[in-house]
Amino acid sequence: MPLRLSTADPRFEDGFRGLLHAKRETAEDLNAAVADILADVRARGDAAVLDYTKRWDRLDLTADTLRVTAAEVDAAVSACDPATLDALHLAAARIEDFHRRQVPDRQDYVDAAGVRLGARWTPVGAVGIYVPGGTAAYPSSVLMNAIPAKVAGVPRIAMVVPSPDGVLNPLVLAAARASGVTEIYRIGGAQAVGALAYGTETIAPVDKITGPGNAYVAAAKRQVFGTVGIDMIAGPSEILVVADGQNDPAWIAADLLSQAEHDTSAQSILITDDAAFADAVARAVELHLQTLPRTEIAGQSWAEHGAIILVDSLSQAVPLVDRLAPEHLELAVADPDALAAEIRNAGAIFLGRYTPEAIGDYVAGPNHVLPTARSARFSSGLNVLDFMKRTTLVGCTPDSLRAIGPAAVTLAEAEGLGAHALSVAIRLGQGT
Amino acid sequence: MPLRLSTADPRFEDGFRGLLHAKRETAEDLNAAVADILADVRARGDAAVLDYTKRWDRLDLTADTLRVTAAEVDAAVSACDPATLDALHLAAARIEDFHRRQVPDRQDYVDAAGVRLGARWTPVGAVGIYVPGGTAAYPSSVLMNAIPAKVAGVPRIAMVVPSPDGVLNPLVLAAARASGVTEIYRIGGAQAVGALAYGTETIAPVDKITGPGNAYVAAAKRQVFGTVGIDMIAGPSEILVVADGQNDPAWIAADLLSQAEHDTSAQSILITDDAAFADAVARAVELHLQTLPRTEIAGQSWAEHGAIILVDSLSQAVPLVDRLAPEHLELAVADPDALAAEIRNAGAIFLGRYTPEAIGDYVAGPNHVLPTARSARFSSGLNVLDFMKRTTLVGCTPDSLRAIGPAAVTLAEAEGLGAHALSVAIRLGQGT
């Protein structure tokens, strides 16, 4: 049974803190094993990657067959159901449209002192996208990682996807084509992360690696950080639904289960001001679980990590939401905007009764890679800026250096940095 | 003597690679010691912080004296030289003006399918700024870390600064006041990072920690990452000057030394197309070193990590710059804009002969916290967005859900996620 809490209960704060700080992941310590794999890939390049792929994916490749050919992608696309391809292309177009609006402008101006100032954004030179294989092969994840990179103008987008026993998901390859991936390698695990970070004879190194993976992949990303950039390390998925009693309990129950079915570590929380509605949702969850395909995963997640929190009024929900800082926040209430305006911490907000979170996983347009584990307090979902970097610009003339330079000399001297002071003073005609 | 390379030399590529991959820092392994300190602060709160402060800063504090009082800040400001305060306030005003232009707009629109989409930015709730004490107490660093947070609208900016033997730099306190810091604690080291991340009886926890520190501080920031956000872990400072033969060698030599004086691990590189100029700069460096106050540090940095690279033409410099991806790039050439347009990787670019890098350390306006160790390939300097987070917004009506929902159902089914499909289908009047 999921946790039940009520703000009317004097022990509420203890229960809520327990929910807030409950660990949902067992951190396996794979650091030493992963360090060995990375060092091996760095030292032996392709040969190491091929060895690990043979051992773990039971796949005998050569340097020539590491890369998926254009003909293979053609064949995969042809093998896809046309209606599914249409849905994929609709999703890709909507994601691209939303992300195009994130491309920042260059700034370039001369201020009152005559100093030229600005900032320009340039795309990262090459990006690696990690895509899980096997059962967790999600074409939507390819779109969400690759399209922002493409929109940013990244010239090289290299995708790695393991193909255990040689099997690749055709829709994953179709998604790669639809989202501007420029090269695909049939490898995975820490060895694929190492190949992207350090490069091999066949795979040129990239500057940044994004995308979800298992514990080996997460550990490898942490270890190569610095050599390359990485995106966040995603934790288990979460949804928080704030709903009044005017919703159909079966709808809200489906929303809660749409997170729960991801993973037994996923978390679904309902906050409502209506006790009878809370009970109705709990019953509807049990009903849905009788018919859904991933009932075992969803049922376990709901029982172990799910929660229903009863509040006196929905405004009481606001500080609880901010403390939970959920990845996904659904506001199934009459005036979602009024409630959203009071909330500070959430990765994405789904407004109103007709906006199930799953619409954002696929076709709404915003990115579905969002901050988990309360990190929405300080971080944002994946976006175009993650695939660009900003260079600031300063240009002084003799006059403008004369206007602001003396203050720099004063501060440099106060900090005891004589060469800093000298580099300005010497241009002002002052020896030191 | 600094390294000398020439692209005309057939062994140039080997030498350049050596420069590119040379390690400039000895990574001390402090992880276990730092983990113990953090665990102790988490368990014992103030008591642990007070114990470590007594041991390492030789300072006997109580919970009541941890915090620097407003009266102490008043007294510190009064103790500062008025001309230095003026320079500090000029710098603060210019930094604030530049950063105000980075505040992003909210997006909110309805697309062709009738779906409401958007993104809003909100400030991080509380930020901790780490400021080194002792000899490396830089008021400019306070301005550069705190002002972007203030401009972002962060309501709580808590600064920690160690005061060994009770000594605090008055100008650091004046900088804190000038840049909107809301509370100051006289503590440092891993214990201060732990106090900010986990909170103690006296210090409320923050959501993000920024600012430079020693190896203990860097290790502590890495370890608390996830509990809170952190900025980048800064490496030794770097400058790359691209200069033609029309510069005054003494000016360029001063610029190279302005990085070298930071730290024996700092790096200064000159790229020029004029061999005689290269020699003149090398001589000017030696001359300056005879008079500068930090000559030992600067001399060692220049001898061990400095480099002069001779190219046939300045356009040959472009790919070298992109591979070095310098923190600071000075373009002391006749047409700096033409050269800048070809370069992709640099933290900040200083345009023309009258723009010494040091002007950007203090008063130009852009941030001086910039990506080091080649990370300008994938990351940017500190800016207002680092103190805000983005929440995406989606809102469907019954009609717009009908327009895009079926594609979501199709993709959810293709991924085998039945509850995802159900949560959309049920709102379209389809059971499943």
TrEMBL record, chains A, B:
Pathway(s) this gene product operates in, as recorded in its UniProt entry: Amino-acid biosynthesis; L-histidine biosynthesis; L-histidine from 5-phospho-alpha-D-ribose 1-diphosphate: step 9/9
Pfam families named among the record's database cross-references: Histidinol_dh
Cofactor(s) essential for the protein: Zn(2+)
Cofactor note: Binds 1 zinc ion per subunit.
GO molecular function: histidinol dehydrogenase activity; NAD binding; zinc ion binding
Alphabetical UniProt keywords: Amino-acid biosynthesis, Histidine biosynthesis, Metal-binding, NAD, Oxidoreductase, Zinc
Transmembrane segments: none
Annotated residues for binding of substrate: 237, 259, 262, 328, 361, 415, 420
Annotated residues for binding of NAD(+): 130, 191, 214
A biological process term (GO) from this entry: L-histidine biosynthetic process
Top-rank taxon, per record: Bacteria
Catalytic activity, reaction form: L-histidinol + 2 NAD(+) + H2O = L-histidine + 2 NADH + 3 H(+)
Top EC class for this record: oxidoreductase
InterPro entries membership: Ald_DH/histidinol_DH, Histidinol_DH_CS, Histidinol_DH_monofunct, Hstdl_DH
One Gene Ontology CC term in the entry: cytosol
Residues noted as binding Zn(2+) in the record, renumbered to the chain: 259, 262, 361, 420
EC number: 1.1.1.23
Active site location: 327 (proton acceptor), 328 (proton acceptor)
CDD domains named in the record: Histidinol_dh
HAMAP family named among the record's database cross-references: HisD
Family: Belongs to the histidinol dehydrogenase family.
Function: Catalyzes the sequential NAD-dependent oxidations of L-histidinol to L-histidinaldehyde and then to L-histidine.
Name under which the protein is recorded: Histidinol dehydrogenase
